[in-house]
From TrEMBL:
Pfam families: Aldo_ket_red (PF00248). This is Aldo/keto reductase. Keywords: NADP, Oxidoreductase. Belongs to the aldo/keto reductase family. Signal peptide: none annotated.
Length: 280
């Protein structure tokens, strides 16, 4: 496993995403993931699976401290001044008294950044979260968050995959030695049929998802949290530590970025950054 160290805490750079996994599926996949060796699990209040994630962790036979667990506060709770309350509810559902990383899931439309990030610092001071961070913030929002938050931000989580350039936020995150977590890291499966990715998979004797996940992990400060409901994919997505993409291979993947590559763009999203290619 590769790790990013922040404030003496080692964050595994490959984790399991759990969006859209619910009920028995969520319990089964998280349990299996922990058995395979995953030690970083990503959930959110809004995914409605915190109870199953918590149960899978509790019944895994692993020590709580051996698992890096992330959850997220929904933006309407942040807007309504209920971050602390929402944190307590998540901890209750997860059946744990602390979270490793708590994130503001989205910036609140039209609200100053300061009142959005101050509650994160309070949650950390209260010992309920070891690390704090944000998700879906633009470069300018991230810079403001870093300035306005009384505690250091460890992480930003954003959509990132070979079709989407994220240079502005990536560079800012690296500047503060934060971890950048790529969500939808395999483009929700959409990048896997790309001929260039398929060719790299053949050359490296790996499958397309392994190529893309390896591309993430070979970038400084980047983690990836692929989601799957298939035990086979769960295993293959974790089997990426025995090969390396060459500089040429990395460049090929960077070359797939395109202006319309974004997949997640709800009504409440901020005005996104546009980036330039890392390879340029
Ligand atoms: N912060 C945010 O706002 C935010 C937003 C979106 C996502 N996230 C987080 O990021 C995680 C991952 O993102 P995501 O769920 O959007 O998409 P993703 O991980 O990029 O893609 C998931 C899709 O890829 C397929 N897949 C996974 N492994 C595969 C493999 N080896 N071969 C072929 N297909 C494969 C899965 O199908 P199968 O089930 O058939 O394998 C599923 O349809 C989420 O679960 C969530 O934890 C956060």
């Amino acid at each position: 496993m590769l790790f990013h160290r922040f404030d003496d805490i080692d964050i595994p750079r490959l984790g399991l995403g759990t969006w859209q996994l619910q009920g028995d599926d969520a319990y089964r996949i998280v349990s299996k993931a922990l058995e395979i060796g995953y030690r970083h699990i990503d959930t959110a209040a809004v995914y409605e699976n915190e109870e199953e994630v918590g149960r899978a962790i509790a019944e895994s036979g692993l020590k709580r401290e051996d698992i890096f667990l992330t959850t997220k506060l929904w933006w309407k709770d942040i807007r309504d001044g209920k971050s602390a309350e929402a944190m307590d509810k998540s901890l209750d559902r997860l059946g744990t008294d602390y979270i490793d990383l708590i994130l503001n899931h989205w910036p609140v439309p039209g609200m100053e950044i300061k009142p959005q990030v101050e509650p994160l610092a309070e949650i950390k001071s209260a010992g309920k979260a070891r690390l704090i961070g944000v998700s879906n913030y633009t470069q300018q929002q991230l810079l403001k968050a870093v300035t306005d938050c009384p505690e250091r931000l460890a992480n930003i989580q954003c959509e990132y995959h070979p079709m989407l350039n994220q240079d502005p936020v990536l560079k800012t995150a690296r500047g503060f030695d934060m971890l950048f977590t790529s969500y939808s890291p395999i483009g929700q499966g959409k990048v896997l049929a790309n001929p260039a990715i398929k060719r790299l998979a053949e050359w490296n004797k790996k499958d397309p998802a392994q190529i893309v996940l390896r591309w993430h992990l070979q970038q400084a400060n980047v983690a990836a949290i692929p989601r799957t409901s298939s035990e086979e994919h769960l295993k293959s997505n974790f089997d990426i530590f025995d090969f390396e993409l060459s500089a040429e291979d990395m460049k090929t993947v960077y070359g797939l970025m395109r202006p319309d590559g974004r997949l997640i763009d709800p009504d409440w999203a901020p005005e996104w950054d546009t980036g330039t290619s890392e390879a340029a």
